[in-house]
TrEMBL record, chains A, B:
It comes from Fibrisoma montanum. Pathway: Lipid metabolism; phospholipid metabolism. Homodimer. Probably interacts with PlsY. Its EC number is 2.3.1.274. This is Phosphate acyltransferase.
């Protein structure tokens, strides 16, 4: 298995990325190769600093350019085909790697996925799925958390189906409980889009729809899949993630709250595309990068995107 | 000053409401009268149980009917003019009380306000404002947190103006920092509505607009007024409120997290109407009711709704 990692993406790249990769490799089995993409000389120097003795192999693939965090995604990708993100998607498209991960420009990752490996046929809009820790253990998957700020009811209904398949194969849950984030339990509650999405989700035979949940149910172990638009989802997900730094600042050390730390999962998959693409926070630390790689490996094993394609095709 | 309280509204009414009123009255000055509205015999019996020795007076106004939590607001209000909510709004409209508070049917409270004291002229849509505790002390006011699930940019821009006036007179801040809840800092980020609202807020000369904030800034003491639609606002507000029960369940006792407990403020005002209307959680405890009454008193003193009418007229 080959996991590609953008060495140049993220606020603390390439140092934090290379360090995270070295940390990950130290614990990975022999059959995993981590492919670092970026400026060979810089990465080589950093790798030399770390006394890397791991079973897993670290490979470096050279990419001359870097897409900065502030650059316009589409423009940057077409002007910089030799950027680490451009090269990563080329490798992914050519099946030279099984997954591509980056803490760099999120928009460029999203657009790059759409342009290279492309959306799965039948998928209206790929989305970003966030892992939300649940109070009784495990995670719920929330989608969309930011790719689509404006959603139609049909998109939300499909997020429910995509999330359900993902939860099935990633978490091993036979019939994941799919819920719609809304502002009341009754089906006539909420925005016009939420009301219409509720009906579509209720009518879908592909999922186990349990109805609406509310903001207070976010961590409540009520749902395995939380469906929402990319605006509400992004705002809620970031609020949920703020629990950890807030608690830390207050001197609170708690096992559950620690799971709301962005580092603990390390990344969010783009779902609905023909491949494994994982994006991470710009601020990603080495620990976050390590966990992002583990998430990628888990996702490759689960083969979730092939299952999504099989169901939705 | 006369504060009316719906004795019959809430999951634990009338017991919890009467107990909360007795608690509040024990600490209130002489010039405050709390007017309990509901079935006289029931309230009388409950008041007799409490050894009420307070400077403030508790009055009872009889209302034969009760609007249940699940009833359709408009239908219930027209069919039950003698409900506690119906009577409360009659008193408020006739200026026999200075504020009306209820933990009952939120929809009926909202519709009741629109039908009786009515929206302030020039206000597109009244909204519900939530108090969000801030890490460096005090609260931000977030609006809308649930009255309007679908919002137009003009509504959001006006929420910013209404919230700014409210924060000015309630918190004594000369130029409250108004922020738009969004999914990125840049002004072109977010849903189409958020993008358009950003421009309107930026152009408004009535407010001190500081730009977009994100979900992670919810408690961050960055803004005094947080503008959002009633869907996102409701979901985020309830998620924020869930921090306290979650922490409590984990055995965490923290002064700041305790402020995220819904009981600590006890209510949320409906803003943009010609009077002081405060709604509280259905699950309100006596402590929540007590704090709701204190909020109402503070709001009557600040005379915020008159100021809003003066600015927007």
């Amino acid at each position: 298995m080959r996991i590609a990692v953008d060495a140049m993406g993220g606020d603390f790249a390439p140092e934090a990325i290379v360090e995270g990769v070295v940390m990950a490799a130290a614990e990975l089995p022999e059959d995993v190769t981590v492919v670092l993409i970026g400026r060979q000389s810089v990465i080589g120097e950093l790798l030399n600093k770390h006394n890397s003795e791991s079973a897993a192999t670290i490979e470096v693939v050279h990419a001359e350019d870097v897409i900065d965090m502030g650059e316009h995604p589409t423009k940057a990708l077409s002007q910089k085909p030799n950027s680490s993100i451009g090269v990563g998607f080329k490798l992914l498209k050519d099946k030279q790697v099984d997954a591509f991960c980056s803490a760099g420009n999120t928009g460029a990752m999203h657009v790059g996925a759409l342009f290279s490996i492309k959306a799965i046929e039948g998928v209206l809009r790929p989305c970003i799925a966030g892992f939300v820790p649940q109070i009784n253990g495990g995670h719920a998957i929330m989608l969309d958390i930011g790719a689509n700020a404006d959603c139609k009811p049909e998109m939300l209904a499909q997020f429910g189906e995509i999330g359900s398949i993902y939860a099935q194969y990633m978490f091993g849950i036979a019939a994941p409980r799919v819920a719609l984030m809304n502002i009341g339990a009754e089906e006539q509650k909420g925005s016009l889009v939420a009301q219409a999405a509720h009906q579509l989700l209720k009518d879908s035979r592909r999922i186990n729809f349990i109805g609406n949940i509310e903001g207070g149910d976010f961590f409540a172990s009520i749902a395995d899949v939380i469906v929402t638009d990319g605006f509400t989802g992004n705002a809620m997900f970031k609020l949920g993630e703020s629990f950890y730094p807030l608690a830390k600042q207050r001197g609170i050390d708690d096992e559950f709250i620690a799971k709301t730390n962005y580092e603990s999962v390390g990344g969010s998959p783009i779902l609905g595309v023909n491949g494994n693409v994982i994006i991470a926070h710009g601020i990603s630390s080495p620990l976050a990068i390590k966990n992002m790689i583990n998430l990628a490996i888990q996702q490759v094993k689960a083969d979730a995107y092939t299952k999504i394609a099989q169901v939705l095709a």
